[in-house]
Sequence to fold (597 residues):
Amino acid sequence: MTHKPAALMRSLLERPWRLWTAQFLTIARIELRKNFFTARGFWVYLLAFAPVAVIGLHALLGHRGRIGEDTQILAGIFQFYYLRLAIFFGCMGIFTRLFRGEMIERSLHYYLLAPLRRPLLVLGKFVAGAITATAFFGLAVFASFLLMYGNFGPAGIEFIFGAGSRHLTAYLGITVLACLAYGAVFLALSLIFKNPIVPGMVLMGWEAINPVLPAMLQKLSIIFYLRHLAPVRVAADGIFALLTVVTEPVPAWQAVAGVLLLTALVLTYACFRVRRLEISYTTD
Amino acid sequence: MNDRIIFEDISKFYGDVLGVNHVTLSLPPGITSLVGPNGSGKTTLMNLMTGLIQPTRGHINVLGMTPADPAALFRVVGYCTQFDSFPRGVTGFEFIYEGLLLHGLGHTQAGQLTSEALHRVGLLEAAHRQVAGYSKGMRQKIRLAQALAHHPTVLVLDEPLNGLDPMARAEAMALFETLGRQGLHLVISSHILEEVDRISDRVVLMTNGYVVAEGNIHAVRQEVREQPMQILVRCSQPSLLASRVFALNHAVEAKLHADGKGLLVRTRNLDQFYELLNRSAAEGLVEIEAVAPADDDVNSIYQYLIGSEGGQS
Fold:
């Protein structure tokens, strides 16, 4: 019994980690180039930076409210636009394309004909997708934040480096977690379904009705954990009020751990699933 | 048996549609050609061998490895598929180079092997142009270069001559012959039967997902006993030889050639015919210029077995 951990450690050390690292980095580099430097990623730029343009225009025209009021507006933009729409659809576009998109383009087989473990392919593609999504949306959220408060002059600058820095950290943290979790889910969906858009829309519906579900069911979603990390509660009226119901507070560490655990579980499943992946372009 | 590619009772169904059924093969090193019409299962067999699809039933073993372990398999296997598509925006050089980096090779070694492969298929000058701007023949060549860049011992080529002009086709055939002589396993599917016929060590004839014959092409022809063998004899007295041929029990037909210097004989007993031919020559009745089998090529065998022209799938 005492020899088992030592044998396990020896077995782990004997694995070709250098080769795997080199292969992983190659996959990630190839995918990053595809994501950032081809025309197919253009719409994600638009999706991410549309609010930046609006807030920038607002600032340019000299409209200025109160910091408290704009904090609510920014919280609303983040929770309703970025979290529920832009990051969701952006991740759907970026991560479903990693496998299903290459099936449609009939180029996935080049990866499958290389001497690499398929789970490594999943991880390499996932990390490239996560970096892409985080860069797009993290930068957009950061720019929105700066433009929103920069408009207030010295008072705004003071807020940015004072109380606002906690908000910014939370927004960026939630953005990263959202990209990881939605990314993993969409990557897995693209390995299961020929058209992952349909289950993606079902997921969107599930996420939308999450606040009004029973407490147990609420935990089976991504938005449940992300909402609890938001630094500002949005005071919403009418139908939007339904989206902001907080039934049971969750500590931040639990929310972060919950999202990361979900990401890990879904990725593990994707790694398992990809081993049985078949190239049948004629039927895709 | 680690130098063989073994298919053990392999079946593959796409839902209700049959891909291949009960295929059992053991392929030694050399050039093996898969021949059959559209939908006969050639590509399915190649995809199964390389793990792009999984068999519904049976086992495949490639030089002691299983297609379920791509990390080991593709160190020794290169596969040039029929899919005429490429990752977006890549140049010819990047296409091969990045594939080699996935092998875990360093940048220098990958660069050297890339240049070598490009040189081998005559694409060095176009190396830094985008593949999207290549002609069909160039795209075929760049895929071939990628399949052999890492010096595999098993090369699987699905219709590798498609899109190549006659000159490039001749070069490709010469390359395949060289690789075959070096002891590599080359598994080739092609509908250009005359050329495949010339370089193949053995053929696998397929129809509707079944293997109908396999082995050395001449041996396969001999096994098709219900079809008389055709022999073309170029000689000085073809009519005299024809009259002697008709005395044989197994002669079916003797047709004089239009130029009066040849005779096409169809016989069910080849040994008896050759005996007669030798005797006639020894007696000085005819002067023999050349003797050649007229129908032990892939196309003829295919017609006899399947009843149609062999073609691509």
